[in-house]
């Protein structure tokens, strides 16, 4: 396609027609010539917003982007309402690819009761592959807003599901042919299906109802990065147990094959939560079918300790995500 805005007929049939209206808060949504979305709030509600570029994957980029941004909103205690999509596409893109991206995004929005509120699409020679930036908009009662700086010494740190789900799913899809030459197909296809676990909206809903101080979606930098960020944001210390951190065997094997540290790989789908009663929260989550574990405790002081049996080390500042070693 030619550089510049998408041709109007392509924009209408492959972008705008894929986005459906379903949220009463959205007063003005995407349309030709409409540059702004409009959303209404109740008197006691506040906006919560988040923005993420999706660069680590091309396959399923539409659905992936929605999950990641909705998770960030949910971690702040907000109900995700909608997204604005900025889609930058290379000249060699074909219209079916654009339509599939939008259909995947719309399908995921429908699953999460969200809406594509607007955005921008453009063909440009500054990208080599599709680049999707998702700006999420959510709402919550002012009193229910959660911030990562609210962790208190003595609180338990809980991790939901399993770490590395996101990175494992991306590798299993993007490197499928290579992995099938090395692993049993069942392991590869199971790893690809980890995408089904990427949403943490239910995790967050249960945690909010139970009573928590802070939540953090475990994304770039993996669980090690998230542990550091929660502690640093609240000015607390940390004492965590490596062996308590939940991880799937598929993640261990895929990461080992590529020489990656699974504790420093993208882990959306896993939520980190600070609460006074970690074991009570784990029981509440498991009653809803969500695996979870207490992995440590916030402490006074500044030391961020990671235990592995008899070995003790200090947690490092977040490093570059391991996925980029393979995906560039």
Description:
By secondary structure, this protein is of the alpha+beta class. It contains eleven helices and 14 strands. The protein has helices spanning 8-15, 61-75, 95-111, 165-174, 176-180, 185-192, 201-210, 222-234, 249-258, 278-287, 324-327, and strands spanning 4-5, 26-28, 38-39, 45-54, 79-89, 115-123, 131-141, 156-160, 214-217, 237-241, 271-275, 292-299, 304-308, 311-314. Strands 9-11-8-12-10-13-14 form a seven-stranded mixed β-sheet, sandwiched between helices. The chain has a five-stranded mixed β-sheet with strand order 1-6-5-7-4, covered by helices on one side. Strands 2-3 form a two-stranded antiparallel sheet. The longest helix has 17 residues, at 95-111. The protein is globular and about 65 Å long. It starts with a strand and ends with a helix.
How is the largest sheet built, in terms of strand order?
9-11-8-12-10-13-14
* Rg, nearest Å: 20 Å
Overall mean pLDDT: 95
| Termini separation | 26 Å
Give me the count of strands: 14
SSE series: EHEEEHEHEEEHHHHEHEHEHEEEH
Report strand %: 25-35%
| Shape assignment | globular
Count of helix runs: 11
Assign the structural class, choosing from mainly alpha, mainly beta, alpha/beta, alpha+beta, or little secondary structure.
Answer: alpha+beta
Largest sheet: 7 strands, mixed
Helix content: 25-40%
Low-confidence stretches: none
Concise overview:
The protein is α+β, with helices and mostly antiparallel strands and about 325 residues long. The protein is about 35% helix and about 25% strand.
Which terms summarize this structure?
328 residues, alpha+beta, 7-stranded mixed beta sheet, 26% strand
């Amino acid at each position: 396609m030619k550089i510049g805005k998408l041709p109007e007929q392509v924009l209408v049939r492959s972008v705008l027609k894929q986005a459906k209206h379903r949220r009463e808060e959205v007063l003005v949504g995407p349309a030709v010539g409409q540059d702004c979305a409009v959303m209404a709030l109740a008197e006691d509600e506040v906006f919560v917003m988040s923005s993420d570029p999706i660069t680590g994957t091309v396959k399923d980029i539409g659905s992936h982007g929605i999950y990641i941004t909705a998770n960030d909103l949910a971690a702040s205690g907000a109900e995700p309402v909608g997204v604005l999509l900025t889609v930058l596409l290379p000249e060699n893109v074909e219209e079916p690819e654009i339509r599939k991206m939008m259909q995947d995004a719309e399908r995921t929005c429908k699953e999460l009761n969200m809406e594509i509120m607007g955005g921008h699409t453009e063909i440009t020679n500054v990208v080599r592959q599709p680049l999707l930036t998702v700006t999420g908009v959510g709402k919550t009662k002012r009193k229910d807003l959660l911030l990562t700086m609210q962790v208190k010494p003595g609180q338990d740190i809980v991790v939901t599901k399993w770490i590395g789900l996101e990175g494992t799913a991306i590798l299993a899809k993007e490197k499928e042919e290579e992995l099938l030459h090395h692993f049993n197909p069942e392991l590869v296809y199971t790893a690809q299906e980890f995408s089904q676990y990427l949403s943490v909206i239910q995790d967050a809903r249960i945690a909010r109802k139970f009573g928590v101080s802070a939540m953090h979606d475990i994304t770039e930098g993996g669980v090690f990065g998230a542990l550091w960020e929660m502690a640093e944001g609240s000015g607390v210390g940390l004492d965590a147990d490596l062996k308590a951190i939940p991880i799937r065997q598929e993640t261990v094997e895929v990461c080992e094959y590529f020489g990656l540290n699974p504790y420093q790989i993208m882990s959306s789908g896993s939520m980190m939560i600070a609460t006074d009663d970690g074991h009570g929260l784990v029981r509440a989550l498991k009653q809803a079918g969500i695996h979870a574990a207490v992995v440590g405790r916030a402490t006074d002081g500044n030391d961020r300790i990671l235990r592995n049996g008899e070995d003790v080390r200090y947690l490092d500042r977040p490093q570059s995500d391991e996925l980029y070693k393979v995906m560039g």
